[in-house]
Write a structure and sequence with these properties.
180 residues, alpha/beta, 5-stranded mixed sheet, 9 helices, 40% helix
Amino acid sequence: GEVSLNYAEGPSTGPPLILLPGFTGRWQAFLSIIPVLLPHWHLYALDYRGHGESGRTPGHSRAIDFLTDCLAFLERQVTEPAVLLGSSAGGSIALDMATLLPAHVRAVIGLDPFFDHEAYIAWFGAEDQASWWVNERQLAGRPLEELLPTVPLERAEELSRLDPEALNYHAEGRPHEFFA
């Protein structure tokens, strides 16, 4: 009820499989594997708030906000226990979802999840990382045509549909607040 989430859904050809992209990604990150999965799974692929075509929520772009949205999606949209496949931050969200709603989760597949939040915070809080995030924030939300001359198409599409505010914690060297 707080935000509307964009997601893609495939036909019901098997048990539910929820695809969770990494931070700044969108559901299209899984386009290369979706054709292989479609015949065997009832696929759901999500965009987090502030990402892709999901709604924007100023001041609410922390890890807990993404997790809360994913939990609500799982409880409201999926009628049987699901397998969760998450990439990077999506893998960490999937693990948290399984911990908080074990009866709704059949299995978790983590593609490079981060397990140590303190190490993540130290790495993303480093000065060189913050400057990278500042640059990403400056590009986020710009029209695709403006990004294409200097950014590869797939990344340009992600950035053009990314709310710059979603990057504030990282760009301002405050990743610890992102995980608060």
